Amino acid sequence: MAVEAIAEHTEQGHADGVFHQFESIEQQNESYIVGMWSFLVTEVMFFGPLFFAYLLYRWQFQPQFYLVHKELNVALGGLNTVILLFSSFAVAMAVHFAQKKARQKQLLWLGLTLACAFGFLIVKYFEWAHKFHVGHVPGPGFRWEAAGEAGVVPAGIAELFFSLYFGMTGLHGLHVVIGIICIGTLMLLTARKSKLVESYIPTEMVGLYWHFVDLVWIFLFPLFYLMPQ
Questions:
Q1: For position 59, what pLDDT does the model report?
Q2: Which residues form a coiled coil (predicted)?
Q3: What is the DSSP letter of 106?
Q4: Which residue of 47, 90, 144, 165 pairs with 158 in a disulfide if CB–CB is 3.0 to 4.6 A?
């Protein structure tokens, strides 16, 4: 009898859009929000030491880092910044239409966000491909003698700069891939009218994550690409 009662309660909960462990939709939504913000705090703690390490080495090797950073493609970095800024607007619009239960418009803006995410990775691929071609990838095959500033900046410092560059932008790229999976899953569930996304809260949670991904890039772009002399 107890098992049947639990099953009945679970089915009723799913039918109402509330899972059985929550007493109300308000409590469920509050749990989602607290959980997402807690996750984002851990992400800040994850990226924080990397930014601290970069700033420490940049302070120590400012003249050398300035010369090495000129090997980066500012135009491609700027293009990716524009892409992510638009994607933040797009996901905000998706949340807006999710709140209004305008499913088709929500899917449209989620699709635009997804397209921006793929666009970002495509641009990053071409940027990284050039670095592999000229040998600016840290490791045994690192070649700094091919660069114009080779006589001014020691290869070890140049490799340190590119280690930070590939490490931090690569980690950010991994978060973009995770965002693509989240947005794609959300679109699929929304298109199927799943009760899991009946509320606007799941869309808002994905939006918060994507805003965080964009914010990280907003810091990465000026730190690596727009370094003052």
A1: 93
A2: none
A3: H
A4: 144
